Amino acid sequence: MIFLNKNILPVLIGVLLASCSEMLYTNIEVLRPAKVTFPAEIDRLLIVNNSVPQANDYGHVTELFNERQRKVSVDTDSLPVYTMAAFAESVEEKEFFTYVNVQYESLKNTGDYLSTTSPSETQIAELARKNQVNTVISLDRILVNDNVAELFNQEENTFLAYMEARFEKHWTVFFPEMHQKFNLITKDTVYWESESYYRQRALNGLPVRRDALIDGALITGAKDVDKFIPYWEKVDRYFFNLRRIGRVRLPAGKIFFLKVKVKRLRLKLPIILQ
């Protein structure tokens, strides 16, 4: 009995299909599911700020050539507002809810920005009654860890400066009438780079750090909507139109199964014949 190494399988299949088939390519839209399921009767949404602003001296690092890693201070007080604005705008564009409202003023006056505490059921019930909504989404925490660093490309003799910002947000979805809630954490990374033959010019090509973090909050806030509402995504699809394999002519309209044995796992790969 002959067994094939699993690394040889893709090569074998590729050679077989390429030698006796015509490859067809297209792209289609696929509806991707969200992390949250809203009941059909939920149609009025309120988005509230329940976060404490991140300390200006937390999470911002700079690493340059011939220098020690150092922490810097960046004003991040407005990041929750920007990310909520982008989130709300993207929600409205989906037309998933008939009504969307936003409360930017935080429900928390004091507290630890590193801790995550959702609003109480009493608070949510009062907000839902006051705004006449049947679901509430609260932003409970937003943190960003960012660093500015540089590299040298020896092949091109160029300097590369880059900034990387990693965002983490904690959300809670409330269904007040059902007395239910759902917690969700979203994470995303935004990256900027600048390249030049001159080191200082590469560093100067990066955006102002505070402006970059605001842009990152807007970008990630808009992307977070896909975790709450189903979205369409274009994907590539490849089809193989087989007419003959070796000297054996196969009838059209049938399904041909390519049997391959990888170690002790048997695979049957369906290929539709037109």
Question: What topology does this entry show?
Answer:
Elements: H1 9-20, E1 21-32, E2 44-49, E3 60-63, E4 70-71, H2 79-94, E5 99-103, H3 121-131, E6 135-153, E7 158-175, E8 180-196, H4 199-204, H5 209-223, E9 231-242, E10 244-245, E11 248-249, E12 255-262, E13 265-272
Parallel strand pairs: 2-5, 2-6, 3-6
Antiparallel strand pairs: 1-9, 3-4, 6-7, 7-8, 10-11, 12-13
Helix pairs in contact: 2-5
Structure description:
The protein has 274 residues and is α/β, with parallel strands linked by helices. It has a single domain (34-234), classed as Rossmann fold (3-Layer(aba) Sandwich). The protein has 5 helices and 13 strands. A hairpin with a 4-residue loop joins strand 6 and strand 7. Helix 2 (79-94) runs parallel beside helix 5. The chain is flat, with a radius of gyration of 26 Å.
Keywords, separated by commas or semicolons:
alpha/beta, Rossmann fold, two-stranded antiparallel sheet, 5 helices, 13 strands, flat, disordered C terminus
Oligomeric assembly:
single chain
What share of residues are in beta strands? 35-45%
Approximately how much helix is present in the residues? 10-25%
Overall pLDDT level: 83
Concise structural overview:
The chain is α/β, with parallel strands linked by helices and 274 residues long. Helices cover 22% and strands 42% of the residues. The protein is built from five helices and 13 strands.
